[in-house]
């Protein structure tokens, strides 16, 4: 009996060893990715080249200017910037989720006083860097609010009770005064920046009017849109005006609001002209994921964000006269609150490390594919993540930099900035396509995949190893990339990498002991670590028959960019 028992233990042990070996062998099996630069599938429009934030006054502060300069420099085409609260009346100091410009006040007799000093300071910062505004026409000045008191929010990160939506979120007490304010703003912009420049901007009305940001009805928003669009077009007939910037259309309330707005634009009675329809030059909505904590680890939900995008595209595509208008996903992020720190919300711990970076790579690739699927015109997907002035180092806000030091996620945008021309066909033994990821997210095997582009003098391939679960203690993926369609002859290959050891200021900061008061020498090292780094030295390849094969190991949440120059 004892012998049988020992034999059973031995057999179980042997079976376990065999299983481990089989798993090891399966992990060693390469993931094959095929890139054919001869087969173009669509334009590599810089949809990733837009940023936004709640706090407009950060724009012209020290770290704000530094980050904007870096964002402007990473793209060969103009970067667009969207900020909240450009018309909010001054009501105290700058704070999280708050800002003001004092653009509109009234004298004691109710006569308008326009003051564009702060708005100009914000837009000047963009224009000086070759950037362009997505000029958000919001929120309601105190003198025009139909319920002005209390006016200011009292939001605090992590607080159980916050008053966010106050007097600035109400409809105007006088639509004509509102329209004149917008008319004067556009006229002033033309005088300051020139007609041609302002015609290249995107003017949009409000933010998420289907929830608390708008304390009026759907119909009141539509009325405000008609007055706003008429004012913009009177001031500058070729100006671009759009909306409605709803939350994710995957929610029933958001879908209903978006459809009501588009129905009005197509066939409703205009509140200003009395004619049918309203001017609309582009369509806007938001899309967000939703991370949670599972067994003390962050678990992302990219599928939710992609379902929001998919539903928004489906809705737009259902309007024949509107389906080819530019679409701006006005906020396109892993979750909803940029100003909610990791300290207060543990599920936001993905933000400092490479998980945010790999999520960004995988998500943007699928935005292109969803736009192709619905045959819609995706112009831009705005990353709602900028910087937060004078906050602790690596506090876990959804930002691109901390105290002037770039975080790993910004280096993925630098990678995208190197990808130009047209997208090309990607195939192979890949676990996910865009529809499976949309419907299931990434819960089983990792999403090891790629996006590739071909330009006149260069071809690029971005490869990522993404998973919704933030577990880095897993084997590296063995990736084999088979490339076709390269020019015959000498080609220069640069291999860039974002992982735990490369292009990663967070790892370096932790290695320093996580200082909250780093020395100037430490800051210099952090700034250097925050830049996009080569994984290997540049290498000249001799290409025969237009083909080459690249083999590499890619760690979980790592991203590689291969740039072939010729």
UniProtKB/TrEMBL annotation:
Active site: 208 (proton donor)
Domain Glycosyl hydrolases family 39 N-terminal catalytic residue range list: 33-530
Entry superkingdom: Bacteria
Keyword match NAD: no
Biological process terms in GO annotation: carbohydrate metabolic process
The family this protein is said to belong to: Belongs to the glycosyl hydrolase 39 family.
Designated name of the protein: Beta-xylosidase
């Amino acid at each position: 009996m004892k012998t049988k028992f020992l034999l059973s233990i031995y057999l179980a042990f042997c079976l376990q060893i065999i299983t481990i070996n089989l798993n090891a062998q399966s992990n060693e099996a390469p993931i094959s990715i095929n890139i054919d630069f001869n087969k173009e599938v669509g334009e590599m429009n810089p949809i990733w080249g837009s940023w936004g934030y709640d706090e407009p006054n950060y724009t012209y502060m020290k770290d704000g200017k530094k980050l904007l300069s870096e964002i402007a420099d990473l793209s060969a085409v103009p970067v667009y910037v969207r900020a909240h609260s450009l018309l909010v009346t001054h009501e105290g100091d700058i704070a999280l989720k708050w800002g003001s410009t004092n653009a509109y006040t009234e004298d004691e007799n109710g006569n308008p006083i326009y003051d564009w000093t702060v708005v100009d300071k914000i837009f000047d910062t963009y224009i000086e860097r070759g950037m362009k505004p997505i000029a958000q026409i919001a929120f309601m000045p105190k003198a025009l609010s139909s319920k002005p008191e209390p006016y200011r929010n009292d939001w605090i990160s992590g607080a159980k009770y916050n008053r966010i939506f106050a007097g600035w979120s109400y409809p105007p007490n006088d639509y004509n005064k509102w329209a004149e304010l917008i008319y004067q703003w556009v006229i002033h912009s033309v005088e300051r920046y020139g007609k041609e420049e302002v015609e290249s901007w995107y003017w949009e009305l409000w933010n998420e009017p289907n929830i608390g940001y708008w304390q009026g009805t759907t119909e009141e928003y539509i009325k405000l849109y008609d007055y706003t669009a008429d004012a913009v077009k009177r001031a500058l007939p070729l100006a671009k005006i759009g909306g409605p910037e709803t939350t994710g259309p995957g929610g029933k309330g958001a879908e209903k609001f978006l459809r009501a707005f588009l129905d009005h634009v197509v066939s409703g009675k205009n509140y200003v002209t009395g004619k049918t329809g309203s001017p609309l030059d582009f369509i806007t909505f938001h899309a967000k994921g939703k991370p949670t904590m599972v067994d003390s680890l962050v678990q992302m939900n990219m599928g939710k964000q992609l379902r929001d995008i998919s539903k928004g595209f489906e809705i737009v595509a259902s309007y024949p006269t509107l389906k080819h208008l530019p679409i701006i996903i006005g906020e396109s992020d892993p979750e909803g609150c940029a100003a909610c720190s990791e300290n207060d919300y543990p599920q936001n711990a993905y933000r400092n490390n490479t998980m945010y970076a790999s999520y960004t790579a995988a998500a943007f690739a699928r935005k292109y594919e969803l736009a192709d699927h619905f045959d819609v015109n995706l112009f831009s997907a705005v990353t709602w993540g900028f910087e937060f002035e004078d906050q602790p180092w690596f506090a876990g806000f959804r930002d691109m930099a901390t105290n002037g030091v770039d975080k790993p996620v910004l280096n993925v945008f630098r990678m995208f900035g190197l990808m130009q021309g047209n997208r090309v066909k990607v195939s192979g033994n890949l676990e996910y396509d865009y529809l499976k990821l949309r419907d299931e997210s990434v819960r089983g095997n990792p999403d090891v995949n790629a996006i590739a582009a071909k330009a006149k003098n260069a071809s690029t391939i971005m490869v990522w190893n993404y998973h919704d679960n933030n577990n880095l203690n897993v084997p590296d993926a063995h990736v084999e990339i088979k490339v076709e369609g390269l020019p015959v002859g000498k080609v220069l290959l640069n291999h860039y990498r974002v992982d735990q050891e490369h292009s990663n200021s967070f790892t370096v900061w932790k290695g320093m002991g996580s200082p909250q008061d780093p020395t100037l020498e430490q800051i210099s090292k952090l700034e250097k670590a925050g830049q996009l780094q080569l994984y290997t030295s540049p290498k000249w390849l001799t290409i025969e028959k237009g083909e080459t094969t690249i083999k590499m190991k890619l760690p979980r949440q790592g991203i590689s960019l291969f740039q072939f120059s010729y």
